[in-house]
């Protein structure tokens, strides 16, 4: 409608091209207003994500005073952003390489022993940090291309591990 002077002109152009079944005047006005509103909202979301690309959809929606579904639609469709997970890595030192090589040799010899295979355990663990570090599964970086973000964590920070194992 910005190209034309009024909603009536837009309606006449639509009627000339598509026939009688064209949207009414109020519908044309509402769509134009919604389009302008989407442009403004897109700019708000873009600005919010420039400051903090690791923001969640809910926090962006709250900052822009819009529903989360609208924020997600604008982030993915209009801004062409994708959520990427951050990779958490532990800081490695030179002496760690030797320890890893020794563990590899130990595990290979254990797996080759048939008696040891009967006593093989599968386990998993969850770590709860005393410092309040949040679960890494919920951290996303919104970007057009993969930023390959890595976050180095402190190895010896106080934490509690919960461990579970299964065997034959």
Automatic annotation (TrEMBL):
Q: Which GO terms describe its molecular function?
A: nucleic acid binding
Gene3D superfamilies xrefs:
Ribonuclease H-like superfamily/Ribonuclease H
Q: What is this protein called?
A: Transposase
In which organism is this protein found?
A: Rotaria magnacalcarata
Instruction: Give the classification, highest ranks.
Output: Eukaryota, Metazoa, Spiralia, Gnathifera, Rotifera
């Amino acid at each position: 409608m910005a190209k034309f002077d009024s909603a009536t002109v837009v309606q006449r152009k639509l009627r000339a091209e598509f026939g009688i079944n064209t949207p009414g005047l109020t519908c044309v006005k509402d769509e134009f207003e919604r389009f302008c509103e989407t442009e403004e909202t897109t700019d708000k979301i873009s600005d919010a994500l420039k400051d903090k690309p690791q923001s969640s959809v809910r926090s962006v929606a709250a900052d822009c005073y819009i529903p989360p579904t609208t924020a997600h639609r604008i982030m993915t469709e209009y801004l062409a952003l994708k959520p990427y997970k951050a990779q958490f890595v532990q800081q490695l030192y030179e002496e760690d390489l030797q320890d890893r090589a020794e563990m590899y040799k130990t595990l290979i010899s254990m797996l080759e022993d048939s008696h040891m295979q009967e006593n093989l355990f599968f386990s998993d663990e969850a770590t709860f940090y005393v410092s309040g570090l949040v679960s890494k599964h919920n951290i996303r970086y919104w970007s057009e291309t993969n930023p390959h973000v890595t976050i180095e964590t402190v190895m010896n920070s106080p934490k509690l591990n919960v461990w579970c194992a299964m065997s034959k």
